[in-house]
């Protein structure tokens, strides 16, 4: 009943936009990484020179190290902690909806505002150090010491993201059959056993999904570092994408920056495949 | 079989109402409040700073949460010295286009991809979806060059047009269109409707919930978008709130109270929309998480 011209009529504008603003940039990003493009000089093919340069550049390895550290700190927390939060937010108690909204709200706050809020939390005379002093712990240089700056960023990321992942788990919890819990209770399973043997295995697809999404998020994070510390102190919070950003738009080394972003893309791809191998096994296997 | 269960159940229920239930509730609320304070304290702290008068120390040990000389002067001063109404107008303008354009193009593309049969349909769909996997950081540089080539640098169009198509939106709307039974279109054709009428009058109203979900998701990302406007718009009079606030931090490095007031002003629209649409926000996040 529909003719091809109907499809063309509906698709013409979206497909044009797709080609110019999605497909073309994606393809040219690949080609750009083999050139020495810097906006001013004509494009010159340098083949793998950008990649070689990146792999020999200590700035690149420093940024990759920072990124991996950030990922190691942020992602496992963002995969595990929201499971507990979701179980908690799934309890049928008074006011639970308000709590869910409160947990979710930081997700909506722009990075610029998040950076402003947390810069003060991290101040030497700020609230976090006050809490530490209550427990007689020494003050921490959250943003000004190279060792603490990435853990601090991870803390902010957990603050702003845990509500988002909680919703994924909450949605997953709705699919767990209630009689499984009832059967376990009759068998005398307590709170922890119940969740360890029923909730976690049933949530496995969601856990996989959340680890992929949060891994990608962690490896792409840089706006927080740009707005909070601009990569400092001493490049200690320069992530790979922040390096790409600085190389491309401050150094105008577009070709080099493209190569670095492609290396990162490959890195994420490999991680995702490993992740799939370990977490998304067929549950019937055990 | 039925006999033991009728004996056991009332016994279990009776136990639940006693001490155990109270401790359980206590533990639940303890953790809920702990998490809630983790979420809320940064906001409260910023509100507190934004209301502090000259006599109140911003940082002190122990921190002073409730201002002694509280004042609204910080808000007035930041409003007068920084073109906040201009930033607000720009943010609203960019958000209107950043929400409506991808909504329209997603609907236009999703309809034939879900309901029509034509050559290359599957290929086109897979091509569109697979680009979702390419990180935007990779395409950021060529996108910048495309905008430069099109002479859109420094214009609102340069910010809006790259986001005018959303593969994610096409994907979600196509799912929604797929769920509509074929008979509805057939009976519409018998009644003499043309293709446009079927799309506009019959199918589109049926996917309203998904349109609402996308509206909210696009609103969040547009209102908060920072990096792309920062790259494209150099002229201060064109900055959205996010970029304005970022620059404000540079201008008033020392005046913490003003920055706090500015941050609060930027938060007000988000809070207002969130409170008005709270239920839909959670639903939007839910459906995007299940289907995406």
UniProtKB/TrEMBL annotation, chain A:
GO cellular component annotations of the record: plasma membrane
Membrane spanning residue stretches: 7-32, 68-89, 101-121, 156-176, 196-219, 231-249, 255-274
Pfam families cross-referenced by the UniProt entry: BPD_transp_1 (PF00528)
Cellular localization per UniProt: Cell membrane
Keyword annotations of the record: Cell membrane, Membrane, Transmembrane, Transmembrane helix, Transport
Residue intervals of the ABC transmembrane type-1 domain: 64-275
Coiled-coil residue windows: none
GO biological process: transmembrane transport
CDD domains cross-referenced by the UniProt entry: TM_PBP2 (cd06261)
Membrane disposition: Multi-pass membrane protein
Predominant location category: membrane
PANTHER family per UniProt: ABC TRANSPORTER PERMEASE PROTEIN, LACTOSE TRANSPORT SYSTEM PERMEASE PROTEIN LACF
Family indicated by similarity: Belongs to the binding-protein-dependent transport system permease family.
Protein name as annotated: Carbohydrate ABC transporter membrane protein 1 (CUT1 family)
Species this chain originates from: Aureibacillus halotolerans
Organism ancestry: Bacteria, Bacillati, Bacillota, Bacilli, Bacillales
Automatic annotation (TrEMBL), chain B:
GO BP annotations, alphabetical order: transmembrane transport
Keywords: Cell membrane, Membrane, Transmembrane, Transmembrane helix, Transport
Main location: membrane
InterPro entries per the UniProt record, alphabetical: MetI-like, MetI-like_sf
Sequence intervals crossing the membrane: 22-45, 92-111, 123-147, 153-173, 258-277
The keyword Transport is annotated on this UniProt entry: yes
Superkingdom of source: Bacteria
Topological category with respect to the lipid bilayer: Multi-pass membrane protein
Cellular component terms (Gene Ontology): plasma membrane
Subcellular location: Cell membrane
UniProt-listed Gene3D superfamilies: MetI-like (1.10.3720.10)
ABC transmembrane type-1 domain: residues covered: 88-277
Family the UniProt entry places it in: Belongs to the binding-protein-dependent transport system permease family.
Protein's recorded name: Carbohydrate ABC transporter membrane protein 2 (CUT1 family)
Species, as recorded: Aureibacillus halotolerans
UniProt lineage: Bacteria, Bacillati, Bacillota, Bacilli, Bacillales
